[in-house]
Amino acid sequence: MRSSGDRQRDSSASGGTPDAGLVICGISSRNQISDASQRFLKYCFDEAPVVGFKVLKNDVLTVRAARDPDALAARLEGAVRGEIEEFSFQSRRRLAIVAANTPVTFRSFITLTYPKNFPSNGVEVKRHFNVFMKALWRRIGKSSYLWFLEFQRRGAPHFHMFLAYDLPHPRKPMERRSGRVRKTVAVNWELQRWISATWFEIVGSGDEKHLRAGASWEVLEHPDGAARYVAKESYKTFQKVVPKGYQDVGRFWGTSRDVPPDDADVIHASEKDMRRIFPPECFDKNGNPFPVMFAAAKSYKNVIGTTADPVKVRAWKRRESHLTDLTLTAAFNNGKEPDKSVFEKRMMDLKRPRPTKAQLERRE
């Protein structure tokens, strides 16, 4: 009797669609997923037909029909998440979607960095951050937030945090260094001194330079500053890889419960419909829509109610079909309520091919 591994290797060698019942799709790092498992996931989602899209505040998400979601759920049941090795592209994309489409307006921005000597264990780093957040809520009260973790070139972790809290007046300019660029930002000096001293004490720094530059709390210049900053930072791949020797990194980002956007309804449409609505940069070289169409919501809003709107087109087709049924019903029954069996018989008669002239002559 052949083993399941032999049958799976035969399926891989033949180049056909992998058998859903023979592929193990556990949640692990990308390097640990077998080629057959990757093809199965691609078969279930990436190559599945497009059934529509979801329109968020700024972005559009492509919706595909999973080929065999029950089989996929069975494969993932009881799976164990592998060790996090980097801030993956998929996770960065989800973060960008949340930041760009959240209903919350962020008004201030916090940066927390470590001194020359820093911990190399994610558990200790997250403990420092949790202690800081508790101190922050005691100072200003609860506020909506979004945070994410990155690593500097020297290997030190640092946090960025967006808050819906609006810094009170008076505000004064402060020069801050971002990489090689120095820029002037608006801060409240009382809160700036508080956050510097609090973070300095939590991490047990002892470095006077870190006391002056280890933490900052500034005003966001633009209402969509969070979306802009996250989009820019997502391309800095060197800050997303966990340094060697760093253990238990844990989560790379998180939010309060009110920050993620609400799930939108699916607008059913084909790829052809989507190509009529969205610009060419929303599609790859083969004409397939990208999973996330950034800043494409305005393209759909411009076609609402027009002949390019799939919702309007379907409504017109339903209305036309309904009017046709009503017309046929009235014609067959002189305006009276139709008998179902008679109506169906008449409809079948209409669908039959009309006899030719020669057939009619033979009947006579």
Helix and strand run: HHEEHHEHEEEEHHEHEEHEHHHH
C-alpha-based Rg, rounded: 30 Å
Cross-sheet strand order for the largest sheet: 8-3-5-4-9
Reading off the top of the CATH hierarchy, the class of the largest domain is best stated as: Alpha Beta
Q: Which overall shape is indicated by the principal axes computed on the Cα atoms?
A: elongated
Strand segment tally:
11
CATH architecture of the largest domain: 3-Layer(aba) Sandwich
Strand content: 15-25%
Q: Identify low-pLDDT runs.
A: 1-32
Proportion of helical residues:
40-55%
Report the total helices.
Answer: 13
Whole-number total of structural domains: 2
SSE-based structural type: alpha+beta
Can you give the mean pLDDT? 75
CATH topology of the largest domain: Replication Protein E1, Chain: A
Largest sheet: 5 strands, antiparallel
Account of the protein in words:
The relative contact order is 0.13. α4 (89-101) packs antiparallel against α8 and α5 packs antiparallel against α6. The protein has 13 helices and 11 strands. The chain has 364 residues and is of the alpha+beta class. The chain is elongated, with a radius of gyration of 30 Å. Helices cover 40% and strands 15% of the residues. The chain has a 5-stranded antiparallel β-sheet with strand order 8-3-5-4-9. A 4-stranded antiparallel β-sheet has the order 10-1-2-11, with no helix packed on it. Strands 6-7 form a two-stranded antiparallel sheet. The N and C termini lie far apart (69 Å). It folds into 2 domains: 1-84 and 266-302, no CATH class; 103-255, Replication Protein E1, Chain: A, CATH 3.40.1310. The chain has helices at residues 4-14, 35-46, 69-76, 89-101, 122-140, 189-202, 208-213, 225-233, 271-277, 297-301, 310-333, 340-351, 357-363, and strands at residues 50-55, 60-64, 108-112, 145-151, 157-163, 172-178, 181-187, 215-219, 253-255, 267-268, 292-293.
